[in-house]
């Protein structure tokens, strides 16, 4: 294929020089696209200087190299011209702005996600803490009766009862309130009736279910 070599004017852009070289070869953009295997829209972008429509610089340079090789031009010269225009073209700066905005948006989204994650964990911790406190509040208080043991037989009408519960608890023995000592322990005496006596210990705490213990005590005098 014979090419007509025209003298290029100073100040002419890369795109204008490429178009003039293609037209000198009597090729349309569609024909050149078939020869180079490069999409027509990229060839048009080169000739219009629309670098924002080109792919990444690495691929753009390879396309330009193929373009020049096909038309028999000076590859080094045109690549150098491309680098000069590519680095100073305003459209490149505009093309990069969306990336900057996208990066900024990603940072904002990441920061928002981090804040939401922190808030979620704080709320979860507070919920667990409050749940534990409510569960503890609703649990019956501890109650341990050390005296008497269940089934105790007493020869005396008076026996001593003792045990321990939690501080702040109200204790009732057979519906009678018993004063607790400082650490929640208690001691008292009760009077038995002849035969089997059922002693009820009930520890109450605000908002919770009561804790209840029972002791069976038998009062028998010597000789029956």
UniProtKB/TrEMBL annotation:
This is Transcriptional regulator, XRE family. Keywords: Membrane, Transmembrane, Transmembrane helix. InterPro entries: Bact_Cytoskel_RodZ, Cro/C1-type_HTH, Ig-like_fold, Lambda_DNA-bd_dom_sf. GO terms for molecular function: DNA binding. It comes from the Bacteria. CDD domains: HTH_XRE. The chain crosses the membrane at residues 113-132. The keyword Transmembrane helix applies.
């Amino acid at each position: 294929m014979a090419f007509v070599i025209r003298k290029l004017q100073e100040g002419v852009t890369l795109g204008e020089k490429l178009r003039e070289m293609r037209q000198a070869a009597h090729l349309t953009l569609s024909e050149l696209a078939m020869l180079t295997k490069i999409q027509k829209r990229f060839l048009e972008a080169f000739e219009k200087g629309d670098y924002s429509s080109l792919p990444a610089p690495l691929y753009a340079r390879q396309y330009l190299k193929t373009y020049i090789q096909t038309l028999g031009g000076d590859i080094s010269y045109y690549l150098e011209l491309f680098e000069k225009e590519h680095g100073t073209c305003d459209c490149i700066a505009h093309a990069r702005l969306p990336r900057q905005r996208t990066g900024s948006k990603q940072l904002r989204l990441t920061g928002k996600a981090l804040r939401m994650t922190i808030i979620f964990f704080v709320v979860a911790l507070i919920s667990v803490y409050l749940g534990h406190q409510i569960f503890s509040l609703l649990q019956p208080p501890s109650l341990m009766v050390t005296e008497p043991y269940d089934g105790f037989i007493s020869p005396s009408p008076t026996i001593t009862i003792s045990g321990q519960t939690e501080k702040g608890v109200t204790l009732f023995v057979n519906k009678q309130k018993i004063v607790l000592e400082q650490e929640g322990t208690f001691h008292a005496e009760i009077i038995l009736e002849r035969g089997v006596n059922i002693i009820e210990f009930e520890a109450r705490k605000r908002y919770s279910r009561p804790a209840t213990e029972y002791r069976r005590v038998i009062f028998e005098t010597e000789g029956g």
